Structures are given as structure tokens and as C-alpha cells.
């Protein structure tokens, strides 16, 4: 497509435009509602719950929706299968593991959404775009692995993997997990394909797992690099590039909270960027849990250029209620 609409930026967004575009970021863990039942059949149940809510968004007037998703548990399962199969089959590099999960989870979301659209008689269809995300090969994150992947382990089990080269950390009081390097995303390689698909009316699944991490070599050629990009930060960049009105993060809690998990917990209905920064500085948002989501919202709002831009954070079952202003945490500039 070569028409001018395929090259819109956030700065082109007008408060008088009829287009309403939302980027909905689904957490990888939210696809596994019960950690004791991670099997695919139960992941389908979680997918159907989320896609039903997204279909309701279109029914209620949202004209464009782009869906992103996490893949931490799913990547962990594949890496574990790699280890169990050593000596029997070749291992799979992390770049291809991310690509595999983009395809498999994208397929699940795509099929479920299209079935929802057919059932509700919504004249829309979904497509999945396998997405690469460029990072800086000199990013200091490569010297400080910090991104949790895989399932939760007890400390003894987690530390037993350190002899195999794993880096493991305690994750927000929920257990121990493996961590890998997580460089900042600087470019969505397939952004024009996503933009054109949205302009044509497709519901798009993109940036799965943050995108496949790539760098450019001295000759400008793309090549994969072993890392995992934070899904929320990549989704934030995507939201800025698309000039989205809403960046919605679907996670495991209904609202952002102060003193999370403590008797004095306070659920928040709304936050400004200044308040979010202040609470972050006081340590209210756990690294590897809520902090990356808050960081991603701040990045989006400070770089959007869209006067309608806002964020919502809530859990899958409350997406529609949050959009109606009944729950969730709204973040504004």
C-alpha cells in the first residue's frame, strides 16, 4: 500500500478524528489463569475470556484494536523441553522460541477473535504479524540479565539450575524464576505492515512477547540476538508509533495498588504520570511485576503526542468494566 494514510504518525492524530485506536497488551501469565493447570486446553479458556472482551470493545465503538501478548511461561516451557531433549534433538535458540510463541499464541488469539466476531456478527477479521523488534547491541542490559521468563520455582529448584548457566532471582514474592537480558526496544521493524493492516480494518496481533530481538550489523542487515524484550515496553513503543488513543494492559490484578499484598493495601482508580513516578520512587511497584507496566505507561504518555492518549491497567475479566470507567486504574499525563 502506498497511500498517505499508511504513513501516519502520532503527531498526525487529531482530537477531532473519528478514529479510536486501542492497543491491548495481554500478559503471558494472564493466559494461564491457574498456575496449577498450565495445559493448552486451559490456556484456550483464558484466551476465550479475553477475546470476548475485545469483541465487546468493537461492539461498543472502538474502530481499531491491536493486540499484543506476553509469552514468559510459554517460552519457559519450550526452553525446559529443550533441556529435557538434550542428546535427542537439536536445541532451539531464544530468537526462534520467541518466533514460535508469536505464531502459536497469535494463532489462538486470531482464531478465538474471528470466532467471536462471527458469533456476534461483527464484520471484522484478525491477522497475526510476526514481528521483529530492533534493540541496541550495546544496551547495558546485556550485562545485567533481569527479565523473568518461564514458570515459578521454589528456591532450591531454581538455584539447582545455576550450574547450567541460568541466572535466577526471587520474583515479587511469588517464587523464583530464570532471568535473561532485556534490552530496550528502539524500533518495531514491521510497523508499516501493522499500520497498513489497521488502516484496512484488520484487528492485528503483533509484537508477541515483545517481538523477536534483532540488531543491525555493520552492513545494515538484521540478525537475531539472544534476549527477551519486555512486552509492555514494546507495546508502549507500538502505541506511540500508531498514535493510539488507549494503551490497555491486561494483567493479573484488577487495579494498580500501593502497598500491594499488605494489610494497608490501597487500590488506585487513577494516576497521573507525576504520581506514578513518585510512587515508583518509593518502591510501591515491584520489579518484574507492576513496575514494567507503570514504566511502559509513562513512556507512552510522555511520547504519544495524542491529546486523547491514556492508559488502563486491569485484569482480563474486567476489561469491559474498566473501559466503562467502573474499575481498573486509569493513567493520564
From TrEMBL:
Reaction it catalyzes: hydrogencarbonate + NH4(+) + ATP = carbamoyl phosphate + ADP + H2O + H(+)
Keywords assigned: Kinase, Transferase
One Gene Ontology term of the molecular function aspect: carbamate kinase activity
InterPro entries cross-referenced by the UniProt entry: AceGlu_kinase-like_sf, Asp/Glu/Uridylate_kinase, Carb_kinase
Superkingdom assignment: Bacteria
Pfam family membership, one: AA_kinase
GO CC term, one of those recorded: cytosol
Record-annotated Aspartate/glutamate/uridylate kinase domain positions: 21-307
GO biological process: L-arginine deiminase pathway
Listed NCBIfam families: PRK12352.1
Family: Belongs to the carbamate kinase family.
Protein name: Carbamate kinase
Amino acid at each position: 500500500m502506498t497511500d498517505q494514510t499508511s504513513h501516519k504518525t502520532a503527531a498526525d492524530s487529531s482530537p477531532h478524528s473519528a478514529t479510536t485506536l486501542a492497543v491491548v497488551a495481554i500478559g503471558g501469565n494472564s493466559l494461564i489463569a491457574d498456575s496449577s493447570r498450565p495445559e493448552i486446553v486451559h490456556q484456550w479458556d483464558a484466551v476465550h475470556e479475553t477475546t470476548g472482551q475485545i469483541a465487546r470493545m468493537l461492539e461498543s465503538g472502538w474502530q481499531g484494536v491491536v493486540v499484543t501478548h506476553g509469552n514468559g511461561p510459554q517460552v519457559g516451557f519450550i526452553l525446559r523441553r529443550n533441556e529435557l531433549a538434550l542428546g535427542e534433538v537439536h536445541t532451539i535458540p531464544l530468537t526462534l522460541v520467541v518466533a514460535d510463541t508469536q505464531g502459536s499464541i497469535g494463532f489462538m488469539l486470531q482464531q478465538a477473535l474471528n470466532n467471536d466476531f462471527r458469533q456476534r456478527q461483527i464484520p471484522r477479521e484478525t491477522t497475526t504479524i510476526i514481528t521483529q523488534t530492533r534493540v541496541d547491541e550495546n544496551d547495558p542490559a546485556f550485562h545485567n540479565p533481569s527479565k523473568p521468563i518461564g514458570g515459578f520455582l521454589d528456591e532450591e529448584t531454581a538455584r539447582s539450575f545455576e550450574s547450567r548457566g541460568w541466572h535466577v532471582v526471587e520474583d515479587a514474592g511469588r517464587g523464583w524464576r530464570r532471568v535473561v537480558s532485556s534490552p530496550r526496544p528502539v524500533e518495531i521493524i514491521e510497523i508499516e505492515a501493522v499500520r497498513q493492516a489497521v488502516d484496512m480494518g484488520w484487528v492485528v496481533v503483533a509484537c508477541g512477547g515483545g517481538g523477536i530481538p534483532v540488531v543491525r550489523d555493520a552492513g545494515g542487515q538484521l540478525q537475531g540476538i539472544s534476549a527477551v524484550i519486555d512486552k509492555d515496553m514494546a507495546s508502549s513503543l507500538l502505541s506511540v508509533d500508531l498514535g493510539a488513543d488507549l494503551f490497555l494492559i491486561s494483567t493479573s490484578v484488577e487495579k494498580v495498588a500501593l502497598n500491594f499484598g499488605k494489610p494497608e493495601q490501597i487500590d488506585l482508580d487513577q494516576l497521573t504520570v507525576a504520581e506514578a513516578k513518585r510512587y515508583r520512587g518509593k518502591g510501591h511497584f515491584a520489579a518484574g511485576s507492576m513496575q514494567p507496566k507503570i514504566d511502559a505507561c509513562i513512556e507512552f504518555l510522555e511520547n504519544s503526542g495524542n491529546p486523547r492518549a491514556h492508559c488502563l491497567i486491569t485484569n482480563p475479566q474486567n476489561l469491559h468494566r474498566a473501559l466503562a470507567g467502573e474499575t481498573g486504574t486509569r493513567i493520564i499525563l
